[in-house]
Amino acid sequence: MVRVDGNGTGSALIQVRGVDKNYSRAGETIHVLQSLNLDVDKGEFIAFMGPSGSGKTTLLNLLGGLDLPTHGSITVAGDEITHMSAHKLTEWRARHVGFIFQMYNLIPVLTAFQNVELPLLLTKLSRSERRQHVEAALSIVGLADRMNHYPRQLSGGQEQRVAIARAIVADPTFLLCDEPTGDLDRKSADEILDLLTRLSTEYHKTILMVTHDPAAAERAHTLLHLNKGVLVEGAHLDSVAGGVA
Amino acid sequence: MKFGGLLFANLFRKKIRLLLTIGSFAAALFLFTFLAVVKSAFSRGVEVAGADRLVVINRTSIIQPLPLAYRDKMMVIPGIRAITHANWFGGVYQDEKNFFPQIAIDIENQRDVYSEIVMPDDQWKTFLNDRQGAVVGARTAKRFGWKVGDRIPIKTTLFGGNNSWEFNIDGIFHNTKPGGDESAFWFQWKYFDENMPADYKGMVGWYVIRLNSPDDAERVAKAIDTEFTNSNYETKTETESAFQAGWAKQFGNIEFLILSIGSVVFFTLLLVTGNTMAIAVRERTGELAVLKAVGFSDRAVLVMVLAESILIAVIGGSLGLLLAAAAVPVLGSALNGLLPVLVVSYSTLLAGIGFALGVGALSGLIPAFGAMRLRVVDALRRV
Q: What is the ipTM for the molecules in this complex?
């Protein structure tokens, strides 16, 4: 269940209440997000669409604890993250959030295995336990046979799959995907979307995805449209695509 | 060491740059070590000087002599345990490049004053009874391959024109003080005096006095200089360490010179490494942001960048120290004894490692703080 009216029951995995996000640029205040409310239940797969500058990535950053709102509160799995210290927020991120970026953002000098292992280095898992988790994650994304390859030895689609493995390896509470197919050709994009759909249906992962791609948005259970910092529920795909164009 | 893989992967990311940076450290530490060794060589005389010894020279200059008769006059001053005297010979063995100090010594009192000098008693006895005898420090004996029984010609340059003086090597001495001199060539003052021109007979180059207690130094020195005030040969008496320091200063202000060069090396290295680390961090802005996004704390990122910088410094520094340790003895030989023995001591090595660690940490500090303060959102926007 996803709601944007702020009348959620309180049992939602993610609760956003009255969030504003303002930036100052050259003395001028820019209102990126305004009075935003959102309730997301566990296992939801949400796509956020909207024109450039509408606040999609800002919303994702706030939900991922990478940035703080100007006003309002964000609560995830019972933790209100808006008042956490930077250190606590970092720990919270490591435990609850898996990030998937448009440009994959793999570390080029590390192998696929080492890239996926990164979030586990912060845990108390033993070396062999880390290996098991990494191999499992790479198997899910279909790259168990490429674990010793460096990013430069992989295609764009494969790199993004390694990034997805990195995002899921620590079994986070939810995944945040910022244009996960934005840098891929159609075929590779579809493979990534198939993978995200699988993560949602088979592994019941909660996924929040920002995209400009209507085909990507189609895979989500719910489509939300952001326009000028305001979140609109149930926007039709056609109208959203038209808005983007 | 679970972060070791990440650390080393980042370290070897740009191999040429890594090699050049390590090379800069190695070169700088080589220079640092060499300068420290030279400084230590110059100051060793001061370090090993006896706290209970005074040196008496002619007030005008050390090259002006003092009468032998002063010995008995000084001996009555309370606080003096023993007095010996010596003259500089300044001869040449085979070639002018083969420098080592040859000194005519007072055989009766020399060992009472220099108790740190040791050699077999039978060799010393032979020396005492051999007018043309000489005892030589182990370093010089080794340098020229001399052994007891060898007959050594030394050409005089200061006394008696261009004649060769013949000496029998009767003994080889060692110095029990770490870093103490083992390069001198001692022969009998009486043999020296016999061969002096009439106007130089009975004159000594300097006296060395051993005191009952170092606490007497100031009083005895003052008493000696007062005793000979307004005489034809006024004296200048100072502690052995002050005398050695003055001797070293004849070569210029070595300490200042070394400090100046060392400072230039330090700051150049700091800038070079700091710049390299800054570039390395700037190139990895996106990656650092991702690390932070997945849960690496600000402090972890700071430590990672600092560790990288320090690791480069330690690898390069160790390389430079090893090179210096290998090269210093070769340089020492090439200098033909012009400087006291050059030794890369443990303290120099430790100071070198400390220097490398300091530069590594300082040069990594600004980029590391930059990485620590990096905001993930801003950094990802730049990628």
A: 0.88
